[in-house]
């Protein structure tokens, strides 16, 4: 079922005039009987970069994968509450998860080009979706948007795996945007990259937000403070049986999270006292 392209009828909590594109309401995430994430209320603004920070095991990646239903592929996964896109429930039984993933793309921590040519990495999704336009133009446009065209234009037939790690990650970003999503999710996209490649990806993110909404999970505090417009800090709490679940502590403009947080736990984390 196609999505209804509706404008959200609510307002973003710290920026009243900013349109929210993704929203969670009292979201609980379970794997089997184990609670992984509890009570998350969050509005993601359109055409901004929103960062998720927090210690390992606090549910950042779990939440990210809720937005394009990748968690559906994990046995026992279920949610309570609501996770919506333009106010439409992403988990409505009428919604096709494949269509969700076309509109909400994903870039993973480790670059994962297909074992195909650079050209075919970009063209693959378009072919699957029966793209009717000019594939050559699509490939060039996607690579240009990912700031990779000038580096690979003379070797489009070369295997994508022959590129450097940073180039592979930008190829994966180009592949994600080639199917024309509205949102790009990034799960620690720079974790395995060197500083120069990390800088290029961060610069690319700033360019991409002109056309896309970006949500990024990162453990790098400097990256979050440099790159994100808004930042959500998550923490984890232990249960009586020794298991842990994540929860949202604080969400605000990035400058407020890092310079004037309202919660003591946020201050301790961004100042390096724990985590």
Count of alpha/pi helices: 10
Topology pattern, helix = H, strand = E:
EEEHEEHEHHHHEHEHEEHH
Give me the secondary-structure category. alpha/beta
β-strand number: 10
Overall mean confidence score, pLDDT: 90
Task: Give unreliable regions as ranges.
Answer: 1-17
**N- to C-terminal distance:** 42 Å
Share of residues in helices: 25-40%
Structure description:
A ten-stranded mixed beta sheet has the order 5-4-1-2-10-9-3-8-7-6, sandwiched between helices. It has helices at 60-66, 97-103, 118-128, 135-145, 149-152, 165-178, 195-208, 221-227, 254-259, 264-270, and strands spanning 20-31, 34-45, 49-53, 77-85, 88-89, 104-107, 183-187, 213-217, 230-238, 244-253. By secondary structure, the chain is α/β, with parallel strands linked by helices. Helix 3 (118-128) crosses helix 4 (135-145) and helix 3 (118-128) runs parallel beside helix 6. The protein is globular. It has ten helices and ten strands. The longest helix has 14 residues, at 165-178. Mean pLDDT is 90; it is low at 1-17. This is Phosphate ABC transporter ATP-binding protein PstB. GO terms for molecular function: ATP binding.
């Amino acid at each position: 079922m196609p999505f209804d392209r509706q404008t959200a009828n609510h307002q973003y909590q710290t920026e009243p005039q900013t349109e929210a594109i993704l929203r969670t309401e009292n979201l609980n995430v379970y794997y089997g009987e184990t609670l992984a994430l509890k009570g998350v209320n969050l509005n993601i603004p359109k055409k901004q970069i929103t960062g998720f920070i927090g210690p390992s095991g606090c549910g950042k990646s779990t939440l990210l994968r809720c937005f394009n239903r990748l968690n559906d592929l994990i046995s026992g996964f279920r949610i309570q509450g609501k996770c919506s896109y333009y106010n439409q429930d992403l988990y409505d039984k009428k919604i096709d998860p494949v269509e969700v993933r076309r509109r909400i793309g994903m870039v993973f921590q480790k670059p994962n080009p297909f074992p195909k040519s650079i050209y075919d990495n970009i063209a693959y999704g378009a072919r699957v979706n029966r793209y009717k336009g000019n594939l050559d133009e699509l490939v060039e446009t996607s690579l240009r948007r990912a700031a990779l065209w000038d580096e690979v234009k003379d070797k489009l037939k070369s295997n994508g795996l022959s590129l450097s790690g940073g180039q592979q990650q930008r190829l994966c970003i180009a592949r994600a945007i080639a199917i024309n999503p509205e949102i790009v999710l990034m799960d620690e996209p720079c974790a395995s990259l060197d500083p120069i490649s990390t800088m290029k990806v961060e610069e690319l993110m700033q360019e991409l937000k002109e056309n896309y909404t970006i949500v990024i999970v990162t453990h790098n505090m400097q990256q979050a403070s440099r790159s994100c417009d808004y930042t959500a800090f998550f923490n984890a709490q232990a249960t009586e049986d020794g298991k842990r679940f994540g929860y949202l502590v604080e969400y605000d403009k990035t400058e407020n999270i890092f310079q004037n947080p309202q919660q003591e736990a946020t201050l301790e984390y961004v100042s390096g006292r724990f985590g």
